[in-house]
Amino acid sequence: MSEKGETILEAKEIFKAFSGVPVLQGVHFDVRKGEVHALMGENGAGKSTLIKIITGVYSKDRGSIFWEGKEVEINSYKDCQRLGIACIYQELSVIPPLTVAQNVYLGREPKKGGLIDYKKMNEMTAELIARYDFPLKPETIVANLGIGQRQLIEILKGLSCNSRLLIMDEPTASLSGKEAESLFSIINTLRKNGVSIIYISHRLEEVYRLADRLTVLRDGKNAAVLDQADIQPLRVIELMIGKTVDESAGSSKQMRVSKNEVRLDVRGLTDETGRFRDISFTAHKGEILGFGGLIGAGRTELVRAIYGIDKFKSGEVYLDGKKLNPSPKRSIKAGFGFVPEDRRQQGFIPLLSIEKNVALTNYDIVKRNGAAISDASELAMCKEAIKKIDIRPADPEKAVGLLSGGNQQKVVLGKWLMRDLKVLIIDEPTAGIDVGAKNEIYELLESLAKQGVTVLLVSSDLQELIRVSHRILVMRKGSIVKEFDKETVTQAMVLAAAQGLEESKEAAS
Amino acid sequence: MKQTTVRHLISLGMLLVLIVMFSILSPYFLSPDNLLEVARDASVVGIIGVGVTYVIITAGIDLSTGSAMALVGMTMANIYAYTVWPIWIMLVFGILVGLLAGLFNGFVVARLHLPEFIATLATMGIYRALTYAIAIRDAGGVIQSQAMTDSGFTALGGAAGPVYLVTIALIAAIVIGQIVLKYTRFGTNLYAVGASQKAAALSGINIAKVRILAYVVTGFCVAVGAIFTTARLQSTTALLGDGFEFDPIAAAVVGGVALSGGSGDIVGTLIGALFMAALDNGVLKLHMNTAYQYIIKGIILILVVMFDAWYKGRMEKAAQEKGVKEAAAENE
Description:
The complex is a heterodimer.
Chain A: E1 7-18, E2 21-32, E3 36-40, H1 47-54, E4 62-67, E5 70-72, H2 77-83, E6 85-88, H3 100-104, E7 111-112, E8 115-116, H4 118-132, H5 147-160, E9 165-169, H6 177-192, E10 196-200, H7 204-210, E11 213-218, E12 221-227, H8 233-241, H9 243-248, E13 253-254, E14 262-270, E15 279-284, E16 288-293, H10 299-307, E17 314-319, E18 322-324, H11 328-334, E19 336-339, H12 343-347, H13 354-360, E20 368-369, E21 372-373, H14 375-389, H15 405-417, E22 423-427, H16 435-450, E23 454-458, H17 462-468, E24 471-476, E25 479-484, E26 488-489, H18 491-499, H19 504-508
Parallel strand pairs in A: 3-10, 3-11, 6-9, 9-10, 16-23, 16-24, 19-22, 22-23
Antiparallel strand pairs in A: 1-2, 1-4, 4-5, 7-8, 11-12, 13-26, 14-15, 14-17, 17-18, 20-21, 24-25
Chain B: H1 3-25, H2 32-57, H3 65-82, H4 87-111, H5 116-133, E1 146-147, H6 151-154, E2 159-160, E3 163-164, H7 165-183, H8 185-195, H9 197-202, H10 207-233, E4 235-236, H11 246-254, H12 266-285, H13 291-331
Antiparallel strand pairs in B: 1-4, 2-3
């Protein structure tokens, strides 16, 4: 066997469960020398858990890991470094005020006479940069570099300690097209130099271009390991979603256009930095309009702009025919409700009680005694919310931070239900919420729609998106690329559109 | 031009404006004697400023420097009054107390994980109270200013030729402080910890150790400052160091050390210390009420912090606009 094809890392029969819930169930994963091995799977398939076990962040319940044929225990960052495994984190860990060279050799600076030998350090860095042809200079202050170049510093850091396996987790998530291109050519150079890469990505086109092999995970198990020749986009989508699951869960549905009058009319919305461009759509009274797409497609940015949290550069938003100048205060007044993606950070105030959280956006409608807020009115409102959506425990005094994820989300929703709502924007409504509460939230959204509320739903959970939405718009790289308004939609069709594959219907057949 | 250089020039510009203004208002201000006096007055603030700069670069703060100074002074006064030990032993004890005070600050901050502000606010009270506890009192229990007139000791308060010894110590502190900051791992680690503790930890840096060491260095600088101050005054009181928590921080901030951590250097703090001393001196030379010193310092501090925030925002906006332009070019 040629040296290039040797297996460098092998994980066998990996099992891992979190508080009894199995996340990995006998996963096998191996990486060969000098290959780019892509790892794909839907959210929750177990990709990041597997990587965290390989890098020693989590311990495995069962299974074994082999490095160059020898069984190893990896328990820490140091173990990784010793073996030659480096992880390029999604959240970058470079130090902006230092130079490129200082970052690469941070904690390992070469010294001469007790002081840092900058000349040598810069030379060593320049050598590394030249070897892999990176567009960097050793003495540039990192604060002046873009996000793409910062990522290269992390890669350089990994290479500087002779890492032979680089793990890249969604490396292009925050890169521009040009930056991504230069990353791809660097990945090719690394491969030629015998460095192995685990490439985790949601984007099929990248995997298609780069990967020598592809492992697909589904529900904590191996769905397939494909060689380059077998990596065909539609096949991969099928493997990720699992056809049988798709149909048995009933998650294909006939889409339709509501016959009610138009409530929300968005025309040509474009933001400053191009995260969404020329977005036009209408949403009807009593309609649940779903937004599908990959993470980073611009959906969250779009709904935030419609609600008025972020500014947009051009375009118009009309509500019931009247032009809006969105700001959260004006939007609330006009009848908007907004349930943000990150409910812990943006949705509620953990230390405050259910009562105060419900009242927070509703002080304009809580009764007053003179200037003071009427406690009785506030309490009555909270009790109404608790009853309406079954928040448990039904204790107005309970701090929201102490509730389960599902009940926290109900509080966030509940405060909007106290108002005369026209449009509810809800972003990833059930992330990290148990199945029971999920269903309750779905029912709640449906009943709101029946009452005439227009719901804009952003969801990366395809099953949820199809189940809840009446109509689906798919966004890709900041634009709406597909509208599903009459056909029977499957997860594969939505995913194919989100990936930019033309023949999305074939995937369904 | 590098951003730090730009920031230094801005501080220098402020200092120059101040000097020009005072030299117009008071003919005596620019005389060599007065300038040496300004340098002397800047020295203790500058020496303590070296340690305080380290702490602020790690995104910390030390409010206890003035109190720690008093504690060092009173410790030495006790040794002076009640023992027959040679002066050098007294100085060693002074330094030890400074180091311990810094170590304790570092311990509370990095090991007990208290916010720096509240931790050093607490030790500010503790060190001052300890000073009162060990203060030398007369028969009636009234705290006395303790004279320390040994000629070997008071010589430290004097001058070598035209230049005060404390100013020479300042120059040494600045040179060593800047070299340690820029040419040792410890110095690099200060920036790393201040910019992002998470990233520093991922690079294998012992964050607690770096933070503790920054406070210990400050403790050492405080002790040196206390020695030179008491030597010049030839005495100490329980009130020693009043204002010496404010001035080093203000000097660092005027010199461009950002309170958010990760930026600034010792050269900037030196400029800031000279600015503070020139301001104090000018106010005296103009026969203004000394209360105005702190009013003016406070206002300048507010203006500088506002300027830095505005400047930082502008730089970020420029970077963002650059990104937008590139993205736009790409979309075409």
